[in-house]
Amino acid sequence: MLAGTTVEEFIESMDASGVAVSILTGLVEDSFTISNDDVAQWVRHAPDRLQGRACVDPRSPALAVAELRRSVEELGFRSLQVLPYAFGLPFDDRLYYPLYSVCVEYGIPVVTQVGHTASLLPSDPGRPIYLDRVALDFPSLVIVGGHIGWPWTDEMIALALKHPNVYIETSAHLPRRYPPTFVDFLRGAGASKCLFGTDWPWIDPAGALRQVSELGLSAEGEEAFLSSNAARVFGISLP
Length: 239
Fold this sequence. Notes:
By secondary structure, this protein is an alpha/beta fold. It contains 10 helices and 9 strands.
């Protein structure tokens, strides 16, 4: 997946961090691409430890739908990633709708980046509010807003409260940097709606996991955040 890193080394790093299962995703962002086949090659090495997530180019809807179907049926992937910032298309753009229909058909979630993007591209397509219309149009579609939604975190929390199938995932943010409103949500009403993530290799899982213990979660809340919520959403069988 990354130059200089092997799947064996990655599994060793998971073991050292106490991570049971990782989800690997393809990437389509202009000329920078990690193909779904590359992801599948890694997953085949350790199918009990790794799960694949598809990424497709929504600007060619027929090809995107075909690739998503292939990723699910042939590669065994269990979720779709949508990156609004990469194409300047907010999450409720109609080019994505055929993909959402396929996700509903297969019963798999769609994961998106919400909030600011560090790429030198406009961040506005990642506003969490764009999830609202999709959740209304596809009430059975499971939607996961990754990256917390900062600086529009309250907007993301409001959507997770409003829609039963909308969740928040924390990749790209160290626990010590979680916005206070998100921590309050995680401790209370959002205990079943929040999923831990790292965005490896940008954030080291071991260091992030150590910081989770500083959030003041109950034992049940920490287990849900780190494990059972994601297992339920992504259909992961934990050891």
